[in-house]
UniProtKB/TrEMBL annotation:
It comes from Barrientosiimonas humi. InterPro entries: OHCU_decarboxylase (IPR018020), OHCU_decarboxylase-2 (IPR017595), OHCU_decarboxylase_sf (IPR036778). The keyword Lyase applies. Pathway: Purine metabolism; urate degradation; (S)-allantoin from urate: step 3/3. Residues 13-166 form the Oxo-4-hydroxy-4-carboxy-5-ureidoimidazoline decarboxylase domain. This is 2-oxo-4-hydroxy-4-carboxy-5-ureidoimidazoline decarboxylase. The keyword Lyase applies. It comes from the Bacteria. It catalyses: 5-hydroxy-2-oxo-4-ureido-2,5-dihydro-1H-imidazole-5-carboxylate + H(+) = (S)-allantoin + CO2.
Amino acid sequence: MPDDQQLTLERLNAAPAEQLRETLRACCASDAWVDQLLAHRPYADRAAALAGSDTAMGEIADADVDQALAGHPRIGDRAEGEGTDARWSREEQASVADAGDDVQQQLRDGNLSYERRFDRVFLIRAAGRSPQEMLTELTRRLDQDDETERAEVREQLRQITRLRLERALSPTE
């Protein structure tokens, strides 16, 4: 994130919405999430901003979740582009590159099965998870009904978005 785009609590609370959209879309590609997060300003502190992110995620429609999913590559695929969101995605999924060929192939096959089953990309918070853990979750989630899986996708998106917002608000980022 360029220095002039550094997200501080003060900037989140006071900057015009149009100046924040690109920065916030790196956290979540849903325009509705961005709108909801901005609508609840000002935030008393960093913890309140993170809680606001969770609230905003709960307020967006399924179509908005789908818009956010469009900003996420398949597990194991390298995010294209030079933007902050692509860089974060590559970092979050870095462990997959170190997985054995068998696990990588199972993830590719599982991604395709998931997409055929649910008609959307498989989303999981990759940060802090091993490739085997992601594969285990992918396999487990293939057996869920659509309503249960949609709720799980929303929860995974909430976690990813919160981690990214936390990172964006970090003074060291």
